[in-house]
């Protein structure tokens, strides 16, 4: 069985991301206080596992090899970003308003056809994508059934208007 066939026949999915950070408390403040994750457990003062909705962990944070280290080079190899999927467009709008009110800077905001996304960096410079998926039946397709994905500016005023609906 090739990899593509295996993917179609199993429930395989990405389980969590584990990030090396320079300051655990600063990262917990960002992911928990600002983005709304909750601490599920800690390993001493050097690691924490956080979750949305009570799962054992969606994100691991540790300073085992990186305590007080500078951010990784933007031009080097490594994680481009981790992506956090929100269940609805209204939820994405709410986190956008929360970020805006906190004065937290975005690095981008895009409509990808299949999804809408906000981009920012965590305190260590790790890229973070906050997004919601449009319903599958609304995904743009080519005539051969393949996806049409693009990057267009996301209209943030329209996104915020979602909260009034």
Report on the structure:
There is one protein chain. The chain has two domains: 14-68, 2,3-Dihydroxybiphenyl 1,2-Dioxygenase, domain 1 (Roll); 80-165, 2,3-Dihydroxybiphenyl 1,2-Dioxygenase, domain 1. The protein is α+β, with helices and mostly antiparallel strands and 165 residues long. The chain starts with a helix and ends with a helix. It is built from four helices and nine strands. A hairpin with a 7-residue loop joins strand 3 (47-51) and strand 4. The strands form two sheets. A five-stranded mixed sheet has the order 5-8-7-6-9, covered by helices on one side.
Topology:
Layout: H1 3-9, E1 17-20, H2 24-34, E2 38-43, E3 47-51, E4 59-62, E5 82-85, H3 89-102, E6 108-111, E7 115-121, E8 127-133, E9 152-153, H4 156-161
Parallel strand pairs: 1-4, 5-8
Antiparallel strand pairs: 2-3, 3-4, 6-7, 6-9, 7-8
């Amino acid at each position: 069985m090739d990899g593509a066939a295996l993917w179609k026949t199993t429930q395989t999915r990405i389980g969590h991301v584990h990030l090396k950070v320079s300051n655990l408390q600063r990262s917990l403040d960002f992911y928990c206080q600002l983005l709304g994750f909750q601490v599920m457990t800690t390993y001493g003062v050097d690691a924490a596992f956080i979750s949305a909705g009570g799962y054992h962990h969606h994100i691991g944070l540790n300073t085992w090899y990186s305590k007080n280290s500078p951010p990784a080079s933007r031009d080097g190899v490594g994680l481009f970003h981790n992506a956090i999927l929100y269940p609805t467009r209204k939820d994405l709008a709410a986190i956008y308003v929360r970020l805006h009110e906190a004065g937290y800077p975005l690095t981008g905001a895009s409509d990808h056809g299949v999804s809408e996304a906000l981009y920012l960096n965590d305190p260590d410079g790790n890229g973070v994508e906050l997004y919601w998926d449009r319903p599958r039946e609304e995904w743009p397709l080519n005539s051969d059934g393949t996806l049409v994905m693009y990057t267009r500016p996301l209209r943030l005023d329209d996104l915020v208007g979602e909260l009034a609906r």
